[in-house]
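Recap slide: NB-ARC domain-containing protein, sequence and predicted structure.
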Amino acid sequence: MSKQVGAAFPCHTLPVAENHWFFGRRDILRQLENHLTPADTSSRLSSTALYGLGGIGKTQTALAYAYQKQEELDAILWISAEDEYSIQQGFSKAAVDALKLEEAHPQSHQKNMILVLDWLQKTSAKWLLIFDNVDSHDILDDCWPISKHGAVLVTTRDVLIATLPIDQGLEVNEFDNDEGAEFLLHLATKRRRVKGEFEAARQVASQLGGLPLALNQMAALINAKNYSIQEFGVMYSKHEKRFHRERKSGWKYLGYQHTLNTVWEISFTNLGDDARACLGVLSFFSPDSVPSSVFKTENPGELPALLLFCEDELK
């Protein structure tokens, strides 16, 4: 095999600068390192999917891992997989700008993808291919490299995508209250500092469900207004919906354009009718550990039309 391309190694196509405000996720980064960095004698492709809620930090974790490996790997190729156009642009950037493959052309998107996949298969270079924000198995079917070395990292909201051909799936979870408080204080550098702020930060983290995107955006509001954490907690309780719509400049999710509202809208748009009905019922219960028995019935004939999907047709 050969490394030959027109570009000098290392050559990477990372979408944004390194996020020096990245926080936590040490266990996930350690697992990625262990699984995606096989022994030199390995003759197989390694792959992992990070899955979890929108705004949970999957992309930022993948980006942190990529920067962690940038000195060690010859090529890190980042493909934004939100839609077909983004995928085409990602492979063309890899073929033309990064690898400088001889037959690549900026407008020959399909050919560029084939050229990149062919290079990944034949090269002896150390490479990492990242598919960010995959929402369909079809994307992986069309773009999956056939190789006996290298590594693939996928981010997705869908746990079902974290299966074949992917080796393993790692769930990215919300921060617990202590982690969330530390993250909020880590970001809110312009806050007005008062006694008791850590406990107040724990309460804010709990209110926000430990969601990193939410904590990040609220820290930007705290910095913009020079709130203390306690003051912000009071304001958030009064103006929750308004805060969810806002995104202050200077926040620390570089390259991420969604507010909390748009993140949830994207998630809900993809739900089918049965899933929407299920979510509506669950919204009246505790958000954690609702038993599946709630949706089981001994008398299907008593179910309203909206909940007929709860009937077990095989029973």
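Strands lie at 11-12, 46-51, 75-80, 127-134, 151-156, 168-171.
Residues 84-98 form the longest helix (15 residues).
(End of recap.)
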